[in-house]
Design goal:
The protein has one domain (17-316). It has helices spanning 17-31, 38-60, 64-81, 99-120, 126-144, 148-168, 177-201, 210-217, 219-234, 247-252, 258-278, 284-303, 305-308, 311-316. The protein has 14 helices and no strands. The chain is globular. Helix 4 (99-120) packs antiparallel against helix 7.
């Protein structure tokens, strides 16, 4: 239903994540070699739990604390099953991680990325667009590194999202809701961790700087979440207090419509992915800092975009 913080003006159905998950499952039933191993069982069990959690949240608006507890439990299960971050591959001089660090960073990454995609789902087509681009990129790199089965998961979910986006682009006929955004963020986080594992053991990895590449894949939602949380804390508010300071709000608050905002942010996401692939041979720390500077500059530009666009053009986007 419409509300003070909602961008739409009339009732729109939600829980579109059910259709996204269904599309992924049908594709995997046709192509994926299911094996009764801990990693696969934990992964698909976690998706089912998150799907149920998202449905309940869309219906009853669950508390953030309850959702965090479930996500931490799921992240721990994934780490125990064997899908965890074992090395930073020299980023900031850190290579192999201790067992405690492996589990801690893995759970933090899964919970953080899952919620980042949940929070960026604020306007028509944005979370789906970013997720589709990230999944296709992950699928391609995983396939090039020889992990075809994990790549199949990425492509299957991206296909479900692509079909959903037909009905979700502005003006949206349906929203994915937490039912979709939680599953989307979770799958991207787990596949990113799997990519780090494959990249670490590959004799000739396609991407030599795995941690920075994964950072780039999730940069927009993660950077935006950290920025918004930081601003809220700086202003003496709870980091979970609702406001209109997310990256999409920076554009819609200026009068730009959903279509323009989504295209602009997705274009930025494409530039970041191409940049990290193009500059993959430079020193990891330099590329890491460069990505942060690019994202900070882009956020400032988007926040003040109306200054650079004539008022006549801005009116056309209202």
């Amino acid at each position: 239903m419409p509300g003070n913080r909602k961008e739409h003006s009339h009732p729109i159905p939600t829980m579109g994540g059910i259709s996204i998950a269904a599309g992924m499952v049908v594709a995997l039933l046709l192509w994926f070699p299911f094996i009764a191993e801990p990693a696969q069982i934990s992964f698909f069990f976690s998706i089912a739990v998150l799907l149920g959690l998202g449905i309940m949240d869309d219906l009853k608006d669950l508390s953030a604390r309850y959702k965090f507890i479930i996500q931490i439990a799921i992240g721990s299960l994934i780490a125990i099953s064997g899908i965890r971050i074992t090395s930073l591959e020299g980023l900031m001089g850190i290579y192999d991680l201790s067992p405690i660090a492996q589990y801690s960073i893995t759970v933090l990454a899964i919970v953080g990325i899952t919620n980042a995609f949940n929070l960026v789902d604020g306007i028509d087509g944005l979370a789906g667009g970013l997720g589709f681009m990230s999944l296709v990129t992950l699928g391609i790199i995983l396939n090039l590194n020889g992990d075809i089965n994990t790549a199949l998961i990425a492509f299957a979910l991206s296909g479900g999202i692509l079909a959903f986006l037909y009905f979700n682009f502005n003006p949206a006929k349906i929203f994915m809701g937490d039912t979709g955004s939680l599953v989307l963020g979770f799958v991207i986080s787990v596949l990113s961790i799997r990519l780090l594992q494959v990249n670490h053991i590959a004799s000739n990895p396609f991407i030599p700087n795995g941690p920075v590449f994964v950072f780039a894949i999730t940069l927009i939602p993660v950077f935006d979440t950290l920025r918004v949380f930081g601003l809220r804390i700086w202003r003496g508010k709870s980091p979970f207090a609702a406001d209109r300071t997310h990256i999409h709000h920076l554009l819609t608050n200026q009068g730009f419509n959903h279509s323009f905002a989504t295209k602009a942010i997705c274009f930025l996401h494409a530039i970041i992915i191409l940049e990290v692939c193009w500059l993959k041979s430079i020193r990891t720390e330099f590329l890491f800092v460069l990505l942060i500077l690019v994202m900070a500059s882009a956020t400032f530009t988007l926040k003040n975009l109306s200054v650079f666009i004539p008022k006549r053009k801005l009116a056309e986007n209202r």
